[in-house]
């Protein structure tokens, strides 16, 4: 292999899964077996796709201490100072004014347990029953802020528990588990209005979020949440809306906008609008549907959004929550125009979105040794325990390399990403022909086909799931121990989401990118942008051999 020099040192690669807080998530399947490899040092360079903007000026101080179980909790006193800043008024005229002080009470980060976060007793009971004991960092930070009714952008690495970070405060104020004294929007509005709308860019993610809600609502109340995803029978969804009068709907932009336009989904007095994977929802494909959703959810009764074209002026009470592991500046810009005094919430910090400077790009990694030194509040998009490798293979040998990679790492649950459906089908055919249990997952499959494949993969009936960008975001399969990029993603953001399908919630995970020789520079670019080392490797005699890059000395 041209990029590798001879193996130098042998060490054990322990790929076992870290202890989990939630036993129900632990796979019965064996973790990675011990594998022999040589050791190398990969290049670490500064990132260009930096999120430094997010950390330029901390609005408050935190002190942190490590807890067992890989959970960090911190104590903080936050006071967002009165700042003289430019406020863009709804009529488009910029004014300089004093923005009202945003005060967040002391202690939101001191929470060790869910009861300390101020969640209602019925919800705490359900959490306990489902085996959730300790909040993750991002949950400890986000939950009190959302309970205080702030609009937020939640950014934290893949698999860090962002879904519960917004779902728990919503269930504290909406539906049968809510706080006794909480008055909701519907008490003054129409009985048929939903109170929370959650938008996700794919059906799979939408359905996964619904399952999280259902889990906490329990069998008796699970009809309080309704899924409105594309590809499923629309009239059945409309019937369910009419019959069950759900408090919460979760869906894809197209279907939500469609049913809303038909007058069968009433969201005007909605309290919460969540945009999960917000950076994806900002893409051109969703533009028209998202515009409708932003204009109608939580719209002030009697106002005509078409008169102003400004979603902010046409609503009063809606709380907007935007979520993603990757927050490019477009999200910051969107938060400024869609949300009210939005706060950027990360694992151990809260700051005003207004304080994020325009000019600085968003940093994808918190690796201080390799990233922009001007940032004092690093952000991370990738789970810290992930290992990143790349190997060089000719295009015609890629599937064989994938197979050897799976064997060498003794991976039990693998997601292999490709870019084109036809090649993806060929890959499954080749793997199956070589005796490896594989299945395809892509948009050409119907809703039923997609859920069946996913179910089989989650059950362990399928070892290698060959898929495309469809599965890159949000897909939560705890057992996934290896992600392979058989074809490289388009950019570092897509890499981060693909890679984040493994190593979730403190588990170990491995990501291998198989590239052709002329593509090595792309991998180097990802390494630079993400601020994590990518080690060159090859698979020989059933082993992962990690090499050093030419010209590098240890
Ligand atoms: N406090 C907790 N204790 C135990 N398990 C948790 C906790 N919070 C979340 N989980 C579990 O962790 C897994 C990952 O959570 P989740 O899917 O919300 O991550 P995420 O940050 O949204 O990831 P992504 O960015 O990839 O969408 C889920 O299976 C979820 O049920």
TrEMBL record:
One of its Pfam families is: DEAD
Q: Where is the DEAD-box RNA helicase Q domain?
A: 112-140
Q: Which InterPro entries does this chain map to?
A: DEAD/DEAH_box_helicase_dom, DEAD/DEAH_RhlB, DEAD_box_RNA_helicases, Helicase_ATP-bd, Helicase_C-like, P-loop_NTPase, RNA_helicase_DEAD_Q_motif
Region (Disordered) location: 356-379
Keyword ATP-binding part of the UniProt annotation:
yes
Lineage: superkingdom: Eukaryota
Name of this protein: RNA helicase
- Name its species: Rhododendron griersonianum
């Amino acid at each position: 292999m041209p990029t590798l020099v001879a193996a130098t040192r042998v060490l054990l690669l322990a790929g076992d899964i870290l202890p989990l807080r939630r036993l129900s998530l632990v796979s019965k399947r064996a973790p990675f077996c011990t594998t022999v490899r040589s050791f190398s040092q990969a290049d670490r360079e500064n990132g260009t796709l930096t999120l430094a903007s997010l950390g330029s000026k901390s609005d408050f101080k935190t002190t942190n201490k490590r807890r067992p179980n890989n959970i960090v909790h911190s104590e903080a006193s936050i006071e967002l100072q009165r700042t003289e800043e430019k406020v863009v008024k709804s009529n488009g005229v910029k004014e300089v004014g004093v923005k009202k002080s945003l005060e967040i009470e002391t202690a939101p980060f001191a929470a060790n347990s869910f009861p300390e976060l101020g969640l209602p007793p019925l919800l705490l009971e359900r959490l306990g029953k489902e085996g959730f004991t300790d909040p993750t960092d991002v949950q400890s930070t986000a939950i009190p802020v959302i309970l205080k009714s702030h609009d937020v952008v939640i950014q934290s690495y893949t698999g860090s528990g962002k879904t519960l970070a917004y779902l728990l405060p919503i269930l504290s104020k909406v539906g049968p588990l809510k706080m006794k004294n909480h008055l909701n929007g519907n008490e003054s509005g129409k009985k048929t209005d939903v109170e929370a709308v959650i938008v996700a860019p794919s059906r799979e993610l939408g359905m996964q979020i619904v399952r999280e809600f259902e889990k906490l609502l329990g069998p008796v109340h699970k009809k309080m949440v309704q899924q409105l995803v594309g590809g499923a029978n629309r009239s059945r969804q409309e019937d369910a809306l009419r019959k069950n009068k759900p408090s919460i709907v979760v869906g894809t932009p197209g279907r939500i906008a469609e049913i809303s336009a038909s007058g069968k989904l009433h969201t005007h007095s909605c309290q919460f609008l969540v945009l999960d994977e917000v950076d994806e929802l900002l893409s051109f494909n969703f533009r028209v549907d998202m515009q409708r959703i932003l204009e109608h959810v939580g719209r002030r009764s009697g106002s005509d959004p078409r008169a102003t074209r400004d979603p902010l002026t046409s609503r009063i009470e809606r709380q907007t929550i935007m979520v993603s592991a990757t927050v490019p500046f477009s999200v910051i810009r969107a938060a400024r125009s869609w949300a009210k005094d939005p706060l950027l919430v990360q694992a151990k910090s809260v700051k005003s979105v207004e304080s994020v400077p325009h000019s600085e790009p968003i940093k994808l990694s918190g690796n201080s040794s390799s990233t922009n030194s001007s940032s004092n509040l690093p952000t991370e998009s990738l789970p810290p325990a992930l290992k990143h490798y790349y190997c060089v293979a000719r295009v015609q040998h890629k599937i064989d390399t994938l197979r050897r990679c799976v064997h060498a790492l003794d991976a039990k649950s693998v997601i292999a990403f490709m870019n084109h459906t036809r090649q993806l089908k060929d890959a499954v055919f080749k793997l199956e022909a070589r005796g490896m249990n594989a299945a395809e997952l892509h948009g050409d499959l119907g809703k039923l086909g997609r859920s069946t494949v996913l179910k089989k993969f989650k059950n362990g009936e399928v070892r290698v799931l060959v898929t495309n960008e469809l599965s890159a975001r949000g897909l939560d399969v705890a057992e996934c121990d290896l992600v392979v990029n058989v074809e490289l993603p388009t950019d570092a953001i897509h890499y981060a989401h693909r890679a984040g399908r493994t190593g979730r919630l403190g588990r170990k995970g491995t990501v291998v990118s198989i590239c052709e020789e002329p593509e090595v520079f792309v991998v180097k670019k990802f390494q630079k942008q993400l601020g994590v080392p990518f080690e060159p490797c090859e698979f020989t005699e059933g082993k992962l051999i990690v090499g050093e890059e030419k010209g590098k000395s240890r």
